[in-house]
Amino acid sequence: MSATAYDAVILGAGPAGATAALLLARAGWHVAIVEQSRFPRRKVCGEFLSATTWPLLHALGVADAYRAMAGPAVRRTGLYEADTDIAAPLPGSNDTTGAGRALGREHLDTLLLSAAVAAGAHCFQPWRAVALERVDEDWRCALASQDGTQTLCARRIILATGSWQRSPLFDPSAMPHRDADLFGFKAHFTNSTLPDGLMPLLVFPGGYGGMVHSDSGRVSISLCIRRDALRGLRVTYPGHAGEAVIAHAMQSCRAVARALAQAELQGRVLSAGPIRPGFRACYRDGIFAIGNSAGEAHPIIAEGIGMAMQSAWLLCRRLIAESGAAPDMAAIGAAYRRDWHRHFALRIHTAAVLANLALRPSLHGLPRLLLRRAPRLLSLCARLSGKVHHLPPSGLSIAEAVHSAPFTK
Who contacts 14 (Cβ-Cβ below 8 Å, separation ≥6)? Predict the structure, then answer.
């Protein structure tokens, strides 16, 4: 069977994959992007993009469309735990750089993928990659759908398949189940009384989460809970697991109960997991990973979408700069790996520390006491989590952004 040849085949059309497809297509590459789900579709996700991603949205040419659809500007962070209700300014939310906002993944993913297709990327949707085979210097990627099968050929494969799909660089099914595994839940509410411009961290026994005003007047609530805590909740709340976790958060946090007292659930509560924060392989033998396929931080810092899109930029600027007749894939992979760790390692480590504090009740008292005395510690935590340094630097066109020197802190 003959194979259609591309400069790169991207597996996954979420924020990372669509951003990579858009960047490469606008640089003149022949790109295929493969997505197994039909859009629009909801995802378990906090939906928030911090101000640090605005330069990339502008460079991609989607900033105005994003702003028109997204929720209100988020300028404050906070903590909701038991009877604690604290707020503090969110770094990077001044009028010069713009503030972070939230937008449902059913809208964001469609926006980015549509822009990539308009730039010339060839989209296979809904198609599923069923096999990868190395043939000389190229990869052959076999696809399947209800319409049949076909094969794509490319020198470069870019994995943007997320946290739960098996890939040549990461197999989540091979990891053992642990009581400490985190499961994620996400829901939308209308008529919430959550204050405008506030994105609080929620801390409750066995888990943590966040709330934010998203698009269309909705409030998005995202919750993570340990496997053992979820198991215990099912005894108290025998209904739907997601609704049980939301009820648990409301019962545990006075401010959450107040914000959702008169709110109405929109649609069903989504679930996913277990979540696997940490570092993964960025490159191996002509296969590159971006987004959660390369690594992810605990969702407690609300940087997942931004890191996914920014990782795509880090890779694409390397690929395009070295796109000669015989590019050294190993050297590109090594450079991308260094870039990735330079920009994201602090976020991942900060998120791990904050998640450990949130998930260990014995440690709650001290942080709560410190935050009550000095609420701006919340601002410091947000700064360490990556809400200050823009990537790429502000004011660049898409061509300048791709070819600019690595951004250094």
Answer: 43, 105, 109, 160, 162, 291, 308
Angstrom distance (rounded) from CA 189 to CA 262: 10
Per-residue pLDDT at 367 exceeds 70: no
Residue 166 pLDDT: 73
Give dist(CA 44, CA 284) in Å, integer. Answer: 28
- Model pLDDT, residue 172: 65
Asked if the model's pLDDT at residue 315 lies above 90, the reply is yes
Given a cut of 60, is residue 370 above it in pLDDT? no
User: b/e string for 197-213 if b means 16 or more Cβ within 10 A?
Assistant: bbbbbbbbbbbbbbbbb
Of the pLDDT bands very low, low, confident and very high (cuts 50, 70, 90), residue 147 is: confident
